[in-house]
Design brief:
There is one protein chain. The protein is of the alpha/beta class. It has one domain: P-loop containing nucleotide triphosphate hydrolases (Rossmann fold), CATH 3.40.50. The protein is about 40% helix and about 15% strand. It is built from eleven helices and seven strands. Helix 1 crosses helix 11 and helix 5 packs parallel to helix 6. Bound molecules: adenosine-5'-triphosphate and magnesium ion. The site of magnesium ion (MG) has 6 residues, from helix 1.
Length: about 270
């Protein structure tokens, strides 16, 4: 087994990155996949959304793992969650410091990649949630990833900034991580009954074509409530439209990533 690592990224804030990371990870885990969720956002919403706020390993959070002098054993930082099969590399506000502390560090953009390489043999999927920016934390994630999943909110201005994200992904691909590409676009918080919702969905499809997942995540109150209980929506209300949608997305994701070519060898050496 060699894990596929996916970055969930969009520098636009509040588009459903974390909601997608939590619920896709949990849905995959319930489908018997071994999953590691990685929180690369100092907001720590992924960590609290799976009920692990403050529940860290003795070695600390991903902040300590990323800023250690030499690459530490990543296992020292991984914790389990309420979902069987779903593990977590947690973060909290301290992670903000990493952006600054790593500025002059050697191979600063490869820190996460080196950590995750250690456990690629153990998980089917590693999903990494990123902050709403294209700084060093997102760069580390793109360097560590095999593919990028982009949540796009079904609203006016949804496409704004996506060209910039696309450029960034191809720049990171050229510079550090050949083969990196956007593998899927997820429409989130959709209300396809409205003309605006339909119009945005059509526009996103015209830009990303077959990369747009058929499953559309509807706006659903339960999805908004679940994180405050520290639960993925499938454990909070399995019958909700939100839970159904993320389970369907996980099925589609499994099918499309099975066909996805295995990651190109070890690009990192020395
Ligand atoms: N499909 C949905 N229906 C209803 N509420 C949603 C849905 N998806 C996300 N939300 C809510 O919208 C808000 C933003 O979602 P989320 O935190 O996932 O976005 P994000 O892209 O991770 O944000 P940030 O850029 O700040 O990290 C949250 O309060 C979340 O609970
Ligand atoms: Mg988030």
């Amino acid at each position: 087994m060699r894990s596929r690592v996916f970055a969930i990224a969009n520098q636009k804030g509040g588009v459903g990155k974390t909601t997608t990371a939590i619920n896709l990870a949990a849905s995959l885990a319930l489908g018997d996949q071994a999953v590691l969720a990685v929180d690369m956002d100092p907001q720590g919403n992924l960590t609290s959304g799976v009920g692990q706020k403050g529940n860290y390993a003795p070695a600390g959070t991903i902040y300590e793992a990323l800023t250690a002098e030499s690459t530490p054993p990543v296992d020292d930082y991984i914790v389990s969650t309420c979902v069987s099969g779903l593990s977590l590399l947690p973060a909290d506000r301290e992670l903000t410091g990493a952006e600054i502390e790593l500025v002059s560090a050697e191979r600063r953009e490869q820190r996460l990649r080196r950590l995750l390489e250690q456990v690629r043999g153990r998980y089917d999927y590693i999903l990494v949630d990123t902050p709403p920016s294209l700084g060093l934390l997102t760069l580390n994630t793109l360097v560590a990833a095999d593919g990028v999943i982009v949540p796009v909110v079904c609203e006016y201005f949804a496409l704004e900034g996506l060209a910039y994200l696309k450029d960034n992904v191809s720049r990171v691909g050229k510079g550090f991580n050949p083969g990196l590409e956007i593998v899927g676009v997820v429409l989130t918080m959709a209300d396809l009954r409205t003309n605006l919702g339909k119009q945005v969905a059509a526009e996103v499809q015209s830009v990303f074509g077959s990369k747009v997942f058929e499953t559309v995540i509807p706006r659903n109150v339960r999805l908004g409530e679940a994180p405050s209980h520290g639960l993925p929506v499938i454990l909070y209300d399995v019958r909700s439209k939100g839970a159904e949608a993320y389970l369907a997305l996980a099925r589609e994701f499994l099918a499309c990533t099975r066909a996805y070519p295995p990651p190109a060898g070890e690009m990192l050496s020395g």
